[in-house]
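Sequence, please.
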């Protein structure tokens, strides 16, 4: 008799169609609300402090601007310009901010005036602007087709206008083209003429007041023209001090006879030639 082995298939347990739902924990909003509130308050505090600081700075700055205003403009002693002319050139007015003054710009504006050789501009808090000007001093009038002032450094600096004094020796023989073409060489000649005028200022018999014109010739040197009679006195290119000293010994006698003199030549080491007409 056979044994019958009956295999029994074990059926897997069926999954439950209905899963067990997990319970969700409720969100705790309190920390979030707390931190959010802190952040908002922090931003508001920073904004308020920033605005207050800015307004305080602006208020303080405005007070400083109102307090640090120009009340006095001091100008050094002048000979040729007037105080009003100098102040007008600066463009500064009482009530302007001391902090807003551009000293370099003011100095550049002043230096454009031909009378002004050097200028220093300073501010003294709380209310003072100081302007120190050194003016050029004319020693001669240059005839370049138009009349110009020349200073002691041989600088031609200003055309003459109505009201300018003509009470200076006139320098002739230099053209405007020569001055532009050879400024260095021309200036050397002009400084030589200035040195001659300095010698004449020291004279006792024949002085600068006795000279009406100094003529420059690059080849023949300097020639003076006397104020009395307009007589040419030739001096050449060097040794002016000795030549003027010799001329002074005869000038006293010749002074009354200048109308009859054609020219005087002092361009010698040991003699003077007087040519009468």
């Amino acid at each position: 008799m056979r044994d019958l082995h009956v295999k029994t298939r074990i059926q897997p347990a069926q999954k439950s169609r209905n899963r067990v739902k997990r319970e969700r924990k409720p969100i705790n909003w309190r920390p979030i609300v707390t931190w959010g509130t802190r952040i908002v308050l922090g931003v508001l505090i920073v904004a308020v402090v920033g605005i207050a600081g800015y307004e305080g700075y602006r208020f303080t700055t405005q007070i400083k601007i109102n307090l640090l205003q120009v009340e006095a403009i001091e100008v050094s002693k002048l000979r040729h310009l007037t105080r009003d002319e100098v102040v007008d050139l600066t463009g500064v007015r009482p009530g302007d901010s001391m902090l807003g003054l551009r000293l370099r710009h003011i100095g550049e504006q002043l230096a454009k005036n031909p009378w002004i050789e050097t200028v220093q501009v300073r501010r003294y808090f709380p209310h003072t602007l100081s302007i120190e000007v050194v003016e050029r001093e004319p020693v001669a009038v240059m005839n370049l087709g138009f009349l110009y002032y020349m200073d002691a450094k041989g600088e031609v600096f200003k055309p003459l206008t109505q009201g300018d004094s003509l009470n200076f020796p006139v320098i002739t023989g230099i053209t405007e083209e020569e001055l532009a073409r050879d400024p260095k060489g021309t200036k050397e000649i002009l400084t030589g003429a200035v040195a001659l005028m300095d010698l004449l200022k020291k004279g006792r018999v024949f002085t600068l007041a006795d000279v009406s014109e100094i003529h420059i010739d690059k080849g023949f040197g300097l020639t003076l023209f006397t104020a009395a009679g307009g007589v040419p006195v030739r001096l050449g290119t060097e040794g002016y001090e000795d030549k003027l000293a010799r001329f002074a010994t005869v000038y006293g006698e010749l002074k009354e006879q200048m109308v009859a003199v054609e020219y005087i030549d002092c361009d010698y080491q040991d003699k003077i030639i007087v040519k009468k007409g």
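The chain has a mean pLDDT of 86.
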